[in-house]
Give the backbone structure.
Amino acid sequence: MNSPPQTAASEPGAAVYAAHCAVCHGPAGRGDGEAAGRFDVTPRDFVAAQYRFRSTASGKLPTDDDLRRSIVNGLGGTAMVPQDHLSSAEVDAVIAYVKSLSPRFAAEPAPQPMKLPQPSPRTAASLVRGARLYNEAGCHNCHGERGNGDGTSAGDLSQKPADLTRRPLKGGSSAADIVRAVVTGLNGTPMPSYHLLYDDPDIWALAHYVESLGVDHAEMTAQEKIGWEVEKRTPTAGNR
Ligand code: HEC
Ligand code: HEC
């Protein structure tokens, strides 16, 4: 369910935002909070509303559930650490507030999730097929032969390609999360949408292959450490 956009100053989301988001995302949501200079990737600009992690088609706005996932789980390995200290009412309120910061939510039709490919099982054969597709589809040009984010085009891009061996991934580490990223693309980045380019079993084979590249990193990234420090919070076992 998508909540209707609020007016900019409406409570109670404004208070949650000021207390927990503005330090990074900026008082008016422009991605220019006082801590913003410390991050590798600028905190999302909520006025431009180019959201990366969505279940909606390329170029579209996210659903409330997409925003909830990014807010509650955080984006793995980044300074956008899980906001799981907020109550579900506070999360709902801040979602409505963040949407009110961009005129796009009122102007555009309510965001609709795409129908994502039907899951197929992970088998030895699907992993072999996935590895082949990874090269055929040109993933290696950006993400590198082994998925380390060091492909031949990587240096030319406005956003560093993801290191696909790192866990957790920003948009979630499961094969379903990888399918969602590959099918919908990441708005505002060079990561394209592969919607309609491959049939369902092939998209899942690709996702299973990418899933298989993962290594769990016990150590926090430097960006995550800065995120917790800026927020003056301590990670708990559950959110690391
Ligand atoms: C410590 C800094 C920090 C705080 C506090 C913070 N964020 Fe973020 N946020 C970031 C950064 C940095 C990114 C971009 C990370 C990236 O894409 O690599 C981000 C990205 C996001 C995204 C982008 C998801 C997408 O699909 O593109 C959303 C939504 C978001 N933040 C919401 C919030 C909300 C709501 C709050 C407050 C409850 C909050 N953030 C608090 C740093 C922060
Ligand atoms: C033109 C360069 C480019 C190509 C080609 C490309 N990607 Fe990406 N991809 C990116 C960039 C850049 C990001 C990082 C965006 C970010 O960090 O916000 C990304 C992010 C991702 C993510 C999300 C990672 C996360 O942390 O959640 C996945 C999964 C992914 N790519 C898989 C693929 C697969 C599979 C292919 C081939 C079918 C592919 N990409 C092709 C540039 C590319």
